[in-house]
Each structure stands twice: as structure tokens, then as C-alpha cells.
# Entry
Amino acid sequence: MREMTFVDAAREGLAEEMARDASIFVVGEGIGARGGNFNTTVGLYDLYGEQRLRDTPISERGFTSMCVGAAATGARPVIDFMFIDFMTDAFGEMFNQMAKLQWMSSGRLKMPVVVRGCVGVGPSNAAHHSGNYSPFFMHIPGFHVVMPTTPADAKGLMKTAIRSDDPVLFLEHKNLLPLKGPVPDGEHLVPLGKAAIAREGKDVTLVGIAFMVKQALAAADQLAKDGISAEVIDPRSLAPLDIDTVLASVHKTGRLLVVDEDFAPCGAAAEIATQVMERGFDDLDAPVKRLNGLFCPAPYSPALMQNLLPTPPTIVQAVRDLLAE
Amino acid sequence: MAFEVMMPRLGWNMEVGALATWRKQDGDAVEAGEILFEVESDKAVQEVEALDSGILRIPPDSPALGQTVPVGTVLAYLVKPGEAVPVQAKPAAAAPAPVQPQAPAPTVRDEAPRRTARQQPAISPRAARVASELGVDWTGLKGSGRTGRIVERDVRQAATALAAQPLAPAAAPFSGRVSPVARRVAEELGVDLAQLAAQLPGRRIERADVEAAAQAAADQRAAAQEAAKKAAAPAPAGARTLPISQVRRVTAERMATAAHTTAAVTLTTEADATELVRLRQQLKDNGATVVPSYNDLLGKLTAQALLEHPQVNARFEGETIIQSGAVNIGIAVDTERGLLVPVVRDVQAKSLRQVAEVSARLIDQARTGHISMDDLRGGTFTITNLGMYEIDAFSPIINLPECAVLGVGRIVAKQVVLDPEAEKVAIRRMMFLSLTFDHRLVDGAPAARFLQRVKLYVEKPYLWLTQ
# Structure
């Protein structure tokens, strides 16, 4: 067991897979000699050079489409968008080609692509650098979506994503990158579609998305002081979504709060709430509650950021309101 | 522009106030400086001036008289002649939101329980499932959820209370759909049709349903006994391990709730019961078939005192205090199963003989386990007598939601001072009366005056006979 940061653990996963399989290559802006804006590929260019770490111009649709072609012809590309917001220029390529070619070719063409990028609201990152976009990919058949929150999960899910023959969105929250945690030695894989119980409890279920898992855990500590035992679930994968773990928890507690910094309409929290309503209706003692970020583009001004996102105090208050129902 | 009339902050610490009365009516012309309304805050009532001039317009959703609202709540408007009353505007959200519709938002009334379209109270799905599992009829429950919804904890509390009742059929005949055969079998097997109907909504109850329910209940009892036997670890030598009976469980819960909810104060006074003893002896010598007990006598004279002191015959109900017009007296009875408190209704309207007949019947039913749930509910006052165990005085626990309980001690011949100046003593029959009252509902002086009245009626029984 070693203590590593999230970004180092994800990179170790990538490095191990690249060493295992020579068909894996990485494409993106600044991921070559620079090692990536977020240090996602530090050290790998020295090992493999520009054959496998290819810097691109600022042409997201272009290099995404190139990787779709590469995957279709037998390679295993990793597209590193840096900020997932930039992926939006490649929407057409991703939604119409990457997601569908396996079906349209009756399985003759494979799409073993990993699309990675940093998500989430950071301080003064503002409107063009704070996106999440996970619901877009949850909504389209053909994509898997993973959002690990611990270094161990970052490594395990990166490796599983690379080994998958389907397109996988590997979305890493900016605020999680420098956080340290234990990572097992040796081979470590985390399966797709399996949630983790970050903290056991019995009075209320909290589901957090990405960085909100950390905020929910901080809130749970505060609630424990008042005798409220909160169970915190980290879905880890959003597509496929492990709703059974959430249902088992709601069967125990009767009340569910989903905390997601992303916008409320049609978001991950909406999907979780609906599935719990459909399959766990008789276990609910109160309507499922969602706590989302404010429905507006992320501001630049620090003062305007104060009320933008769920924080441990607002999560604690939401739990109190939910328990009073 | 309309001027808002708001609940003022009349004191440094004032957070809420209640509108006591309007001194001007809707539509009146008001000059700045005129007294406009009165506010009740904490214990004082204060007049409030109008700060502006205009026509007074009190909107329909203005707080009702006596309703407690936060400081700053808009009560009314002062408008220019012909000006429209402004609508309640919501504060602007951080993000641009669509404009709110015109009708002012009604204040959320937490007291009125939510009702669904079918006029049943709202219940969470989980609570409905638990109610079905435990056989609880939830339609009469009050929801503790913030929105008035019935939730799991309400159902579980009701189930605990329900479980304390014997399995005898309910006093009122079941009025739902049930076949005649099923009704007869239900009575024979002691199955509660109302409970069974709650588990089988929309169906006509058939014989098979009743038999299945009786079997299920018997199985449950057998299983519970088995579990209790298994759970009992071998006790250390000389100790006995007992399961917790339902009566014990309910008594424990109610006593604990009373102990930590009420502000209980016990007043004691020693009454000269010589005349009361004489009265009872006369009734005995008269050869009546049913001789009123001391509890019956005390019940009647306490009822008279309660009519004169309605504050003590009261209870909290939500945001109000209800002073009952009837005096329903519960009598604490020690039975094999535990403490039961059957209630004699309308003691104030019954003759002493009627009270004695009813109480004798109820006590017998309680002791033989045949008392109905209705006869154990609805009391407004309780009498508990430990005199037969040579107890002088004690501090009884209030029987919630009542305001007070009277503990009666033994009647003892004592030497008492009749006239300290003349140094005159006599042997009199003395009896301690211990009144525990809830200081949240009534204060010490009124409670003491009530007890003093009871004492007077004990000492001079002919006074209450002629009220």
C-alpha cells in the first residue's frame, strides 16, 4: 500500500497499461513533452516519445475523429481533453461516430477509446472551464462514464477503462487531483458499474457525485456530532449506474439526498432519484432530495462563487430538512 | 405607493408577536399617529401607531388574530384612495428566474395535515408499507413530518400503543364491508375487523380472511413466546428473567414521556376528612347495593372543583389549549397485567350513585382484562389512591395529555389543633392530598387554589352537594 495523489495514481494506471499494450497511445494538447497541463502524462514522453504521446493543435474535432479512425482500425487511443469543456467541439464526432459505429458496423468495428478530461468548478475557473457534462454521456447509448474520487479508484478505473472495448469517459474532478490516499501495490482493477460505500450509516443516505463525495463525508462528520448517522455512497461509475447499492441503503434508511455540483435539470441526481422512486418507492419515507449547483454559468468573481455549490454546511442543513420531513 | 404595515420589533429580544386586535377596520382612513392595532408579545399587550397615512387594506392572507408571526411580517397596507393592494412579491433569486404568478402565496400551515385528492391524510410510501406489515390503521394518525405527512416513526408509535390493547373486538360495530359469517367468526376468534380491513383495502372481508388473521396472530404470539424463551439467557442463581409485557412497555414509554415533557410540580395538603368519612358511613348504613368508594366521592367533588377551575381541566392541542367542558376522570387501577386507568365520563353530569355504578363496572372489567380501548381513553383528570397501602403522600406522574393528577393517601386518625389560641385539640380523620400539575399549562397559584377547593369540599362535603 502506498500513499499517492489522485493524479499520480491515474497516471500510474495509464503507464502500466501502456507498458502492457503497445497499441495504446495518448493524444491531446500539451500531453507530450510538457507532460499535460494537469500532469496527466508526466514522464511518459521520455519512455515512448511522440509515436505514443502525440501533441495536437487546438482542433478537438480533428484529433477526436482521428482517434475514432484509429480505434476502428485496431489501436487503443486515449484522448486527453485537458478541460472536458473543450470536448464540446468534438460532440458530433463523439455522439454520431464514436458512440454508434460498433452498432452501425454490426460489431465489425470496435471503439476501445478512453476520453479523459478534468471536470468541475474550480476557484475562478469561470464559465468555459467549469463544466461537468456527465449527464450528456449518461444519456447516450454507447458510452460508459466513470468519476472516481479516490486515488485507488482513479488507478483501478483508468486501467479498467483502457481495457474496455467500448468508449469510456474518464472524468476527473479538478479539486480531487492533488488529494492523497492509499493505493494498493500490484495489479489493481476496479470494475465498471460498482459503487463504493464511503461511510456506513443508518439514518439517511447521501449519494455524492465526484468531489461532492468528499463534501458529503465532511458533512457526515458534522452530523455525527449531533447523533445523525449518515451513509455516504460513491457511485464511482455513472454509466452503468449501480443503483442496487443505493436501493439497499435506502431500504435501511428511508431517506435519500443526492449531492451533485452539476446543474439539476436532467442530471445524475435526477436519474438516481427517478430510479430509486421506481424501484424503491415503498422504502421512501420522504421524497428524494437533490442538492445541486446553482443553475447558472460558473462566475469568475470569487464573491459570486460563495453560494454557487453545495458545501458541507449546506449539505448538513439539507439533511436536517430531509429528516424533518 | 402603498405603505406596508408590519409586525414591529417592540423589544430588543422580540422575535415573534401575535396580532391581538385591529383598532381600525379594512377600508378605514388612517392618519399617521393614530392607534392602528394591538400586539401581544410574551406577556404584554401593546398599542401600535400607524407610521403612515392611507386607507387600511387588510389582505385575505393577513395573519389571523392571535396567530404568532415573525417580526417584520406584513400585516396590511396603507394605500392611496383608488390604489390597488400590492401583491406579495418573492425576493429575487440569484439566477434570473421567471416572474412569479399574481396570486399571493398562502402561508404554509403546518397544523393542517396534508390530504390527498381522496381526502385521506398524506402518508409516505415507506410508512404505508410498515403500516400494512404491522396491521396499523393509519387513516386516523397525525403526521409528524414537517409537511404534515405521516411517516414511519408515526406508524411505529401507533403500533406500539395499539399492541397494548387486548385483542377484544372494538366497542363500536365495524361498519365496513364484511360477510355476516366473517363477522360472526371475527367475534368468536377475537379478530379486530377494523385492523383487518386496513390491511385489505377495497375488499369485502370473508371468513377465510378472518381465519387467516386469527391464525397469523396466534402464530405471532407463539413465535414471540419462543423467541422470548430463546432470548432468556440462563440467569444467575436466584434471579428471574421476565419478558417485557405490552402493558409494561406502554406504561414505561408513557411515564418516561410525562417525566421528561411536563414541568411537574406536586402540591400537598392535609385535609380533614372526618365529615367525608361520616358521609360514606351513612351511605353504607343506608343499605345501598353499590356503596360509593372514597374514589367515587373524591371523583364527584373533584369534578365540581374542576368546573370552577377550568384551567386545570385542560390540555395542549397543537398550538391551542383546550379547556374541556366535560370532566372525565380516570381512576388508576392495579391489575394483574399492570397499571390501567379506566375513565368515567361526564362525572359532572352523573349522580354519585351513577358514578359508583360505572366505576365499579370499569374496575371489574379492567381487572378481568375485558376493558375496551375506548374506556381507557379520553380522560381530563386522573385520581390515584394508594391509601390502602398505608401511603400518606406521594408525587404521582401526570397522565398525558392531562394537566394534573390527584394522589390520595390513607385516612388516619390524628390529633390535630382545632384552635391554637384556646389550645384546643381533637382526634380527627386526616387525609393527604397530593396534586401534581403541569406548570406549562397552569401556574402554581391557580393550581393551589384548585387544590384548596378540593380540600374544602373534602372537609365540608355538603358544600359540593349543594353546588
Remarks:
- The CA atoms of residues 113 and 167 of chain A lie 5 Å apart.
- Chain A touches chain B at residues 254, 281-286, 294-296, 307, 321, 324-325 (CB under 8 Å).
- The first helix of chain A runs from residue 6 to 20.
- The domain at 196-324 of chain A is CATH 3.40.50.920 (Rossmann fold).
